[in-house]
Design a protein that fits this description.
mainly alpha, about 80% helix, about 0% strand
């Protein structure tokens, strides 16, 4: 019963954090867009969030091994509370440059918090499940990762709703208070030795010498760049500015997109199994899906340039993108398990997620720069280029069979 109780506590903490993380992104984006911030300035608001996500993914597993997962989980929750309170203290009378720098610093704390919490929650499940209970491990991980995207999408809607209903500062206070309650509960109840390694690991071990892991990580970098180059700034600002959508409607659309992405991802193993005759996917599947993603975005960009109704292009095109992207992401999540060294799985996966965060970082910056200089079409064509690069690196992946079961894809099919 102790393991079930601890799993419930870890899951509750992760769920609460995921809601606030998605809501905070919408709050910041929509609030500062309404204040007249340019697309480049909006992108810079999230730059440190993504940059420190890269750093945290690189060293987070090593820190947890030294200090235990309880420390990193509680640290992530505490940093998010600090980030929310810090943002609520922003003075609207400050100069634009000072405001941008202040928000970037708060977002840096939130970026560190996000990846500490994510890494801790996912790793804790492995620690809590008894050795050899593979079916239980699969079920528990599937519950956690399968719910993450739905809650992230709900967070987008929550952020837009809170901004419209309460305003910027009260919304931040409400989220900080709710998360502080979760933090106190986790502090009082989680075991102190949760996830602490019996032997120390060298810091140099966080870098992967495995060629297959490195190639897949490069493909992952460009795959997530292909998403965030339009998702972070381009589409939300376009919906608000060009289509006249309000805060709640923009947040609701992005929420539905992320929730739908999660649903497709959860059934991706069954879809791929039909294509492969039940066999696990190989590098060729990642290549084909990346090229299909590039073709999808090229069609969307061409239709938008041809004057087709933007609402139809955005809603239909990005829905198609979400389906292909979700399946592609699931293939990657399977392959990293297949390629990882048996005694260094955590380090290999950490390196892989560092590349994931790096793609989001570059995509975030380019989303603002390209939207301001070239409009939404510039973001869409950049997405095409990133997807082609992901397909190019996927050409270097081996096509041999692996020993992992196809159903394991479900357990590791997380969004970011």
């Amino acid at each position: 019963m102790g393991a079930v109780r601890n799993y419930a506590l870890v899951t509750a903490a992760y769920w609460a954090f995921t809601l606030t993380d998605g809501a905070l992104r919408m709050l910041v984006l929509l609030h500062f867009h309404a204040l007249g911030y340019s697309p480049v300035q909006l992108a810079f608001l999230f730059l440190f969030y993504e940059f420190f996500g890269v750093v945290t993914n690189l060293v987070g597993g090593w820190i947890a091994a030294q200090m235990g997962l309880r420390v990193t989980l509680l640290g992530g929750l505490a940093l998010q509370v600090v980030a929310l309170v810090m943002l609520s203290l922003l003075d609207p009378h400050w100069a634009r440059g000072a405001s941008v720098a202040y928000v970037m610093a708060a977002q840096a704390l939130s970026g560190i918090a996000k990846d500490l919490t994510k890494m801790s929650a996912k790793s804790a499940i492995k620690v809590l499940v008894p050795e050899g209970a593979s079916s239980s491990l699969f079920k528990w991980v599937a519950v956690l990762t399968g719910s993450k995207n739905a809650l992230k999408g709900a967070g987008f809607f929550l952020g837009g709703f809170l901004l419209a209903a309460l305003g910027f500062r009260p919304a931040l206070w409400a989220m900080a208070g709710a998360l502080a309650v979760i933090l106190v509960g986790a502090t009082l109840t989680l075991p102190r030795e949760l996830g602490r390694a019996k032997s120390k690991s060298r810091f140099s071990q966080v870098f992967s010498p495995n060629r297959e892991v490195n190639v897949l990580s490069a493909a992952r970098f460009f795959l997530f760049g292909a998403r965030d180059v339009w998702f972070v700034v381009g589409v939300p600002v376009f919906l608000s500015t060009n289509l006249g959508w309000g805060f709640t409607r923009v947040g609701g659309f992005l929420a539905l997109w992320v929730v739908g992405y999660g649903v497709i991802q959860s059934v991706a193993p069954g879809l791929i199994g039909r294509w492969t005759g039940g066999r696990a996917p190989q590098g060729l599947a990642a290549q084909a899906l990346a090229l299909l993603l590039a073709a999808t975005m090229a069609i969307v960009a061409l239709m938008l340039g041809a004057g087709v109704a933007p609402s139809i292009v955005i809603l239909g095109g990005l829905a198609t993108f979400g389906v292909v992207f979700a399946v592609n992401s699931s293939v990657h999540s399977y392959l990293i398990l297949a390629y990882a060294d048996g005694d260094k799985v955590a380090m290999n996966v950490g390196f892989y997620y560092m590349a994931n965060a790096g793609g989001r970082l570059v995509g975030t910056l380019l989303s603002g720069l390209l939207y301001q200089s070239m409009g939404l079409s510039g973001c869409l064509w950049a997405s095409v280029a990133f997807a082609l690069a992901a397909g190019g690196f996927s050409l270097l992946l081996p096509h041999r069979e692996t020993n992992l079961r196809l159903t394991e894809m479900k357990a590791e099919g997380s969004a970011d």
